[in-house]
Amino acid sequence: MRGDLEWGTIPELVRDAASSYGEREAVVDGRTRVSYAELGRRVERAAAACIAAGVEKGDRVAVWAPNTLDWIVSALGAVTAGAVLVPLNTRFKGTEAAYVLRRSRARLLFVTGTFLGTSYVASLRRAGADLPELEQVVVLADSAPEDYRTWKDFLAGGDSVSAGQVRARADSVEAAAPSDIIFTSGTTGAPKGAVITHAQTLRCYDVWSELAGLRAGDRYLIVNPFFHTFGYKAGIIACLMRGATMVPQPVFNVDTVLANIASERISVLPGPPTLHQSLLDHPSRGSHDLSALRLVVTGAAVVPLQLVERLRTELRIETVLTAYGLSEAGGIVTMCRRDDSPETIASTSGRAIPGTEVRVLAAPGEPGEVLVRGHHVMRGYFEDPEETAAVIDTEGWLHTGDVGILDAAGNLRITDRIKDMFIVGGFNAYPAEIEQLLGLHPDIADIAVIGVPDARLGEVGRAYAVRHRGSTLTADDLIAWSRREMANYKVPREVEFLTELPRNASGKIMKGDLRARAG
């Protein structure tokens, strides 16, 4: 049975999980332990509060918070009320968050109080952005500024909405309706929102759960951020489908990961290769009981064969899988199968998921652009037909901008990125966007950014900058400024000043020359 046919919509999935798994543990968040039945009640209460706050079907509701129970409840509550979820990157600064809020015309925002020493509310206010569509901001904390609401006050507002009204609203949501908009940056540097429906989400992540072998009773440490498809859909949605226990972890810290695996008997640990490498290399790994771990799914970067073999031999993990996806294709395109060889798992991202097609615009065995067609391809970029037409052709093929090679068995190996994107510890970093932000510095006359290898994070940014005449700007100055102005993963770790950037006859920066210079 396909996920989209079994549940139809995410509200129906939540309701089914609450009744099917009842008193089974659904979420462990610090000292808070919540059963599936209780999670269902909390989601319905949040949905009632959304309805009371005036949220209509199709309205965009944003969540800007780390991996917590409150994120799960507020997001699923909004979707149950028929809203379209817009997750915001927790690494965003106020200006970056305001852009997505304005572009999506979000009516309601759920925001964390303070995270990693940063007040998100203060950050948003400092941005001074004009957000006429944003009617309410709910702070997921016990206190809030005067014109914002606390989580408790917001939930209390829903007491006037009956369970029958919530049920009627949830039942009116259609499978073909958008369930979320995942904003992703493109080559232009401006984030664009990939629109994905309820049916697409359910079909894709039922497939993901099946291929991964996720099952009832699994205990899943969700380190992948909820604002990312990997965290929200391969995490929350997949767990709801299979009755697995979610253990959200707000920050990637290896000591915390080790402690959680041991104390919570974690059996499932998806994440970027850097997470697993850090785990294997941790000096106190041997003092933690990691024996419950049985399933690892990774991707988002090159996966060394040695990493796959070490996970299987040193940690005795029975299933290690790799996958490839992008937001415009619902987050999943290809995935390894459990009976694939270690070499296939390490050197490829597996085969196309059922019901989809993958093509490479090149001769067999040669690198070319990866094209994807099928049920998981987005409905389009939100309110942006021109950008949509630029990536989805008239035959329905999504042009991914990634370069790959297909082998005879249909396994895909990603070799390069047309878009110049590089991946910092699992986060997609787009040079065009970073260059746009760095170009705002008053001392910068010209700028180019490339990704360079990094032992810990996989890749990091390196900036080549041209100063305005008379400027004494240093690399440390520009890096410090960047840390104040952009998400940490976008900040260049190295800056080299040049008298001019290498450009071709048409004036385009020759990134290949800069990569050669970086060695």
Question: What does this protein look like?
Answer:
- The chain is of the alpha/beta class and 519 residues long.
- It folds into three domains: 3-175, 3-Layer(aba) Sandwich (Rossmann fold), CATH 3.40.50.980; 252-417, 3-Layer(aba) Sandwich (Rossmann fold); 423-518, GMP Synthetase, Chain A, domain 3 (2-Layer Sandwich).
- The strands form nine sheets. A five-stranded parallel sheet has the order 4-3-5-8-9, sandwiched between helices. A four-stranded mixed sheet has the order 14-15-16-17. Strands 18-19-21-22 form a four-stranded antiparallel sheet, with no helix packed on it.
- It is globular, with a radius of gyration of 23 Å.
- The N and C termini lie far apart (51 Å).
- The relative contact order is 0.09.
- Broad CATH class of the largest domain: Alpha Beta
Assign an overall shape: globular
CATH topology of the largest domain: Rossmann fold
Instruction: Catalogue the unreliable spans.
Output: none
Please state the structural category. Answer: alpha/beta
Helix content: 25-40%
Largest sheet, in brief, is: 5 strands, parallel
Count of spatially separate domains: 3
Strand arrangement in the largest pleated sheet: 4-3-5-8-9
Strand percentage lies at: 25-35%
Oligomer: single chain
Give me the CATH architecture of the largest domain, please.
3-Layer(aba) Sandwich
Give the averaged pLDDT, no decimals: 93
> How many strands appear in the DSSP assignment?
27
